[in-house]
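Consider the tokenized backbone below.
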């Protein structure tokens, strides 16, 4: 493998805090959350309320997550490639009393059933560290406690970046409402992001949206899953904002079964490279699954045109300026497709064009990737090989296997656990070798 050092990447802060022109471009900066003390508070009694099917061994989950972060740091090659949301929140609270007060007020207003208003003044007097701890765990010395936020590890759902704008989530469940407040206060008050608050898109009350449902297919086309977590009203509001603020010309609302197995679009459809998609085949093959509502801007400001498309594959062929290769999650047999989709075989994360991470357990998906020219390596082997040199994106296609024995029990893959805020095209173009 060629280990020539990649050209230095441009600084996010030199222009905008946000820049996602399309999926699978070279990662520049990503927000994550390594599981911590909040995950230790998931119990047999509360796990269902907290949206967990199982209880994770937190120590191992942390090791797996930190290994994933090390891979990102190696591929990106810059010291601030990976931003931990826990650190961002503490820095936000340290930056200004206004930020702490804004967080507490939003919390009390958004969760009235938890009666936090009774301790609002006390919460406002918390130190930055105390308030950060309360935000993550719900625990404090106060008489009133709150639930922890273990789903914060799935940072993808907090927001979605399209070009130089970021769309804030409206959590579909009470268990995740505090996460939406956390990302809101960070983006409006953290010194890194506050200067770009005019690029934040906030959706109207009454709609629900989670970032796992949004994929930037190309610089002018966005896909949004109409799922159990994202409402049609939210998709229409997002389409309106994107048409007004960005160069997006097409928004496709992709209909998904409203069930846990397909809770977001990225559980059945993710980009491995600009021209390759890992897909759960029924999305493209089954009648009534994956039809799309196509939104385009109308001539009159504030209005748009809609038309129905029965087949996602056909409309993508029409709208995108390239042919897509669809790689089946789980291979060719439906049983294996369903098993590996359940364990996030279709939820890979592209850290660079043709450089992706997925869970090792989805062996048939990796075999299909091998057939399409990917070299299959473990995360440990990848880091060991490049320990003394730089990874040069675009020289070859590589699929990196993350053990994920504990992380996968949380029901979310590498894409679920990542919120990219900036990507850019590689010096040699978008496509990796062999494309």
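A designed sequence for it:
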């Amino acid at each position: 493998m060629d280990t020539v050092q990649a050209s230095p990447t441009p600084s996010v802060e030199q222009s905008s805090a946000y820049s996602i022109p399309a999926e699978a471009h070279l990662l520049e900066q990503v927000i994550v959350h390594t599981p911590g003390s909040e995950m230790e508070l998931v119990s047999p009694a509360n796990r269902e309320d907290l949206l967990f099917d199982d209880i994770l061994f937190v120590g191992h989950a942390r090791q797996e997550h930190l290994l994933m972060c090390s891979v990102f740091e190696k591929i990106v090659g810059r010291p601030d490639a990976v931003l931990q949301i826990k650190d961002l929140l503490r820095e936000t609270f340290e930056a200004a009393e206004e930020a702490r007060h804004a967080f507490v007020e939003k919390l009390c207003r958004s969760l009235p059933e938890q009666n936090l208003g009774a301790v609002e003044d006390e919460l406002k007097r918390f130190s930055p560290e105390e308030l950060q701890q309360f935000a993550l765990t719900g625990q404090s010395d106060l008489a009133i406690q709150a639930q922890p936020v273990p789903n914060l590890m799935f940072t993808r759902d907090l927001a979605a970046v399209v070009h130089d704008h970021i769309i804030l989530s409206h959590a579909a469940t009470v268990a995740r409402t505090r996460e939406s407040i956390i990302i809101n206060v960070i983006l409006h008050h953290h010194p890194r992001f506050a200067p770009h608050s005019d690029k934040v898109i906030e959706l109207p009350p009454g709609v629900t949206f989670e970032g796992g449902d949004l994929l930037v297919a190309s610089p002018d086309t966005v896909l949004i899953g109409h799922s159990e977590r994202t409402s049609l009203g939210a998709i229409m509001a997002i389409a309106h904002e994107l048409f007004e603020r960005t160069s997006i010309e097409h928004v496709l609302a992709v209909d998904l079964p409203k069930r846990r197995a397909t809770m977001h679009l990225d559980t059945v459809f993710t980009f491995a490279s600009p021209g390759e998609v890992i897909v759960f085949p029924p999305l493209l093959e089954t009648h009534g699954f994956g039809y799309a509502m196509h939104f385009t801007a109308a001539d009159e400001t504030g209005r748009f045109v809609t038309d129905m498309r029965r087949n996602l594959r056909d409309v993508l062929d029409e709208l995108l300026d390239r042919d897509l290769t669809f790689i089946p999650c789980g291979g060719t047999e439906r049983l294996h497709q369903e098993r590996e989709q359940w364990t996030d075989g279709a939820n890979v994360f592209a850290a660079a064009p043709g450089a992706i991470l997925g869970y090792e357990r989805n062996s048939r998906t990796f075999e299909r990737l091998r057939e399409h020219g990917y070299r299959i390596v473990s995360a440990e082997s990848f880091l060991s090989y490049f320990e003394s040199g730089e990874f040069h994106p675009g020289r070859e296609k590589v699929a990196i296997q993350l053990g994920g024995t504990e992380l996968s029990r949380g029901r979310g893959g590498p894409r679920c656990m990542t919120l990219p805020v900036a990507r850019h095209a590689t010096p040699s173009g978008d496509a990796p070798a062999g494309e």
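The longest strand covers residues 26-32.
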